[in-house]
Write a structure and sequence with these properties.
Blueprint: E1 5-9, H1 14-25, E2 29-34, H2 37-47, E3 51-55, H3 61-75, E4 80-83, H4 98-126, E5 130-134, H5 147-167, E6 173-179, H6 201-214, E7 218-221, H7 223-234, H8 237-248
Parallel strand pairs: 1-2, 1-4, 2-3, 4-5, 5-6, 6-7
Helix pairs in contact: 1-6, 3-4, 4-5
This protein binds NADP nicotinamide-adenine-dinucleotide phosphate.
């Protein structure tokens, strides 16, 4: 599908910023959403007038759904929506705190669904549009210190799986993307040795953009990490968990 108008959340840095630039270069009008307006203005200065900055806190689900629904009407119809905004922290269950859990669920689950739900009615009516959620390889198995993050990304992926069953028949496309480690603000605090097969942001953006173009239903990358994660998902739980705990140490 050739896109005309895209909404990308989390466009102020990392993968979202890279995707916004990638689509703007192809002539797509990109509504680039995030909280940091200054970063969005610098994105427009870098990537040009195809970028339309949109200050939006997806942590407020009701306001996000209403804003996206209004944008869909005002803009003449979004044909690509990428729910990319996300937060991730390594937090041990032994020292977990409710505000961190709540924020991750608000942004990664409620915020992502509010973004996609805001665009859905218009897309269904037009029988045209592509909905994309940026999940994670962490959605495929439970990882130590990542209970909330893994669960939030699994929620998004399963929701997209179900949504596809309902909307593909009316002509919509649904893609769930599961990245492994990619350089970004989110991963800059991690030790490089703890991030096997770490990708440059631009490399990841190219892979994701092409997967969306092919209309992949589910896209997990890089293949090395995706294969290892899928193999561990198939292991008996006891064996998998003892490997994960020893690797993590
Ligand atoms: N990097 C990786 O290795 C990796 C791996 C798997 C999955 N992912 C997923 O990829 C997505 C992008 O992450 P990234 O690696 O590019 O991280 P990043 O550089 O930290 O970008 C996160 C983006 O989300 C936005 N955001 C956070 N909270 C928000 C809120 N309440 N409202 C609106 N926007 C908000 C941030 O913008 P503001 O702060 O300006 O609002 C920022 O633009 C996330 O969903 C992440 O979980 C990343």
């Amino acid at each position: 599908m050739h896109f005309q108008r895209a909404l990308i959340t989390g466009a102020s840095s990392g993968l979202g910023r890279g995707l916004a630039t990638w689509y703007a270069r192809q002539g797509v009008t990109v509504y680039a959403a995030a909280r940091r307006t200054k970063e969005l203005d610098s994105l427009r200065a870098e990537a040009g007038e195809k970028i339309v900055p949109l200050t939006l806190d997806v942590g407020d689900g009701d306001a996000t759904e209403a804003r996206v629904r209004a944008l869909d009407a005002e803009s003449g119809g979004l044909d690509l929506v990428i729910a990319n905004a996300g937060v991730g922290n390594d937090v041990s269950g032994r020292a977990i705190d409710w505000p961190t859990v709540k924020r991750m669920v608000d942004v990664n689950v409620t915020g992502a669904l509010a973004t996609l739900c805001g665009a859905l009615p218009g897309m269904v009516e037009r029988k045209r549009g592509h909905l994309v959620g940026i999940s994670s390889l962490a959605a495929l198995i439970a990882l130590p210190r990542s209970a909330t993050y893994s669960a939030s990304k699994a929620f998004l992926a399963m929701w997209l799986e179900g949504l596809a069953l309902d909307v593909e028949e009316v002509g919509l496309k649904v893609t769930s993307i599961h990245p492994g480690f990619v350089k970004s603000e989110m991963t800059q605090k991690n030790k490089p040795e703890a991030m096997p097969f770490l990708l440059e942001t631009d490399e990841a953006v190219e892979l994701m953009g092409r997967a969306i173009m092919r209309g992949e239903r589910v896209y997990a990358f890089p293949w090395q990490t995706a294969t290892a994660i899928r193999a561990s998902a198939a292991m008996p739980r006891g064996l998998r968990n003892s490997i994960l705990r020893s690797v993590r140490k």
